[in-house]
Amino acid sequence: MAMNILFFILLTISISPYLSSALLNDASWWCEKMPNPEPCKHFMSTKPNKFGLILHKSDFRKVALELAMERALNAESHTKWLGQKCRNEREKAAWSDCLKLYESTILQLNQTLDPTTKCTDFDAQTWLSTALTNLETCRAGFVELNASDYMLPLMSNNVTKLISNTLAINNNGSTTPVESYKHGFPGWFRPGDRKLLQTAAPRANIVVAQDGSGNYRTVKAAIDAAAKRSGSGRFVIYIKRGVYRENIEIGNKMKNIMLVGDGMKYTIITGSRSVGGGSTTFNSATVIVTGSGFIARGITFRNTAGPQNHQAVALRSGSDLSVFYRCGFEGYQDTLYVHSQRQFYKECYIYGTVDFIFGNAAVVFQNCMIYGRRPMASQKITITAQGRTDSNQNTGISIQNSRIMAASDLKPVLNSFKTFLGRPWKQYSRTVFLKNYMDGLVDPAGWLEWDGNFALNTLYYGEYRNTGPGSSTSRRVKWRGYRVITNSNEASRKRARRKRCGGRKKGHTSRICKYQRAVYLGFLWDLLTPKQHVKFGRMLRRKPTKIEIKIEDKEELEEARNRTAAVNPTGATALLHHFNTSSASASASTKAQRIGLQS
Ligand SMILES: *[C@@H]1O[C@H](CO)[C@@H](O)[C@H](O)[C@H]1NC(C)=O
Ligand SMILES: *[C@@H]1O[C@H](CO)[C@@H](O)[C@H](O)[C@H]1NC(C)=O
Ligand SMILES: *[C@@H]1O[C@H](CO)[C@@H](O)[C@H](O)[C@H]1NC(C)=O
Ligand SMILES: *[C@@H]1O[C@H](CO)[C@@H](O)[C@H](O)[C@H]1NC(C)=O
Ligand SMILES: *[C@@H]1O[C@H](CO)[C@@H](O)[C@H](O)[C@H]1NC(C)=O
Ligand SMILES: *[C@@H]1O[C@H](CO)[C@@H](O)[C@H](O)[C@H]1NC(C)=O
């Protein structure tokens, strides 16, 4: 024993003099530095020798993670056992979400601890953020179903606080990365996956078709089959056009699933669960995905519960490194639940009323169309409700190069409803709007309180170089946490560094890119041949008015018209607008006429 103490003293002193204060009780010395010292000390003291000697911050990080893991496992089995205590359906609904959420929390902690996972500080911060968000979601389920009085006290534990401690230790400044983009997608997106998105018809492992021409008639049957596959490589499910009335869940174990539709107008997955109907918000989603590496392209996710049924999610993603490309999200309150992890949305359409993009993921939206719909009387439209609960989480919503507009049902009654960019669902709510077009619906104040002064000092809301009638910041809220970003450094940490969209001939490419950006809203680009792409480039170098685009195939032309008109009745207008903002000072309407987008 004496030998041990001597060894300990020598070692400590030789490493760092200030550590000598740790002599009495090294764990509690470290615990004191945490946001939640009490539970840290409490549990450390019950197992003084379990975690060994703590000399460095990295030792303590490991110890704190192990402690959080141990307590989370304990809480999980206690929660399972509590199932028998549920007194009604509402308690049961909230409780069964919690089981899944605890399972995910343990998964996140485990992969953070796993010495064989290659993991950056940012990965770890993401997973720990998710571990914490899960537990907040578990709690929220009981509260929203008015079932918090009995079960929640029984479930009380200190796991949230212990995870919050691990977030504080892990966050040493290197956990806020500069966003990097390659070929228009995040740096973490694999080139092979990007090719899959850009191939006209990627090879499918399974085909779903309602008319029996595929392997399965329902999406659910295809997902069940995919669950039985061996390995976790990219697995492509092609869902042919049709309206699929199903609720789908792609769970933690199903990694690297890709769903490809025939276009958001044609492949639709729809459901109608809602909080009004007895679901939790969490479980109301028509499509749920948590397995990492998920990709969707050309599909609409819909919830038809309607505004009167309150929270009703069309899609919930807790899939780390998930990408949604040219997808539609249609609902009213709480349409798109960006629950947790890292997510990227490109060229998507998102419709809703209250808090219709919400959650606590690290999520970026680029080149999307965001539509406010007509809410219930006396409701206000809020586009985002970001839910960061801990200042050390690395989560937030970033909306870039998108358009904020009124949907067709809102337009005639625009003066009866106010629209805001967001409101603080949780204490450290974090949202930025960069270089978007904001139509007149956006209220001059810009942002809305959640509840009095709640979170106004601790949130972070920013706007950078937005345009359009709703973008003026002169009458915006004066909260401490709100700022107009003027420093391009501050913005660039959040903004995509625009790269050319590829190809070798630079002169042509950048013009093609411009055009590509301009036409994507009409979905025309996909219909053109590579030769026609090059032709566009050449023509854009000349006088814009001379542009004449011919689509030889009559049916293709009709389809281009249909797709544009049906996905979005103002599609042609959007195209015009995009010309203006992409600085192609062309007579857009002439162009639109020629290419058949405008009658
Ligand atoms: C939570 O931690 C406190 C110390 O901060 C301790 O007194 C309490 O017993 C712990 N609760 C549970 C359920 O372990
Ligand atoms: C943690 O991960 C390892 C390796 O994947 C696995 O063997 C172990 O069972 C996991 N532990 C828990 C508690 O999930
Ligand atoms: C919960 O209670 C509030 C207020 O009493 C009520 O407005 C709400 O509709 C209730 N929610 C559910 C799901 O019962
Ligand atoms: C903190 O930063 C240092 C240096 O950048 C790095 O070596 C270390 O792994 C980081 N993480 C933690 C948890 O200390
Ligand atoms: C375009 O829409 C019309 C009317 O809805 C329909 O009859 C026609 O088949 C569609 N054409 C194509 C190519 O989708
Ligand atoms: C775009 O340009 C056209 C033609 O010059 C013009 O009619 C239209 O109002 C412009 N739109 C915007 C949003 O500036």
TrEMBL record:
GO cellular component: anaphase-promoting complex
Signal peptide segment: 1-22
A GO MF label: enzyme inhibitor activity
Catalysed reaction, written as an equation: [(1->4)-alpha-D-galacturonosyl methyl ester](n) + n H2O = [(1->4)-alpha-D-galacturonosyl](n) + n methanol + n H(+)
Active site per UniProt: 355
GO BP terms, alphabetized: anaphase-promoting complex-dependent catabolic process; cell wall modification; pectin catabolic process
Enzyme nomenclature, EC number: 3.1.1.11
Protein purpose: Acts in the modification of cell walls via demethylesterification of cell wall pectin.
Protein name, as recorded: Pectinesterase
Organism encoding this protein: Mikania micrantha
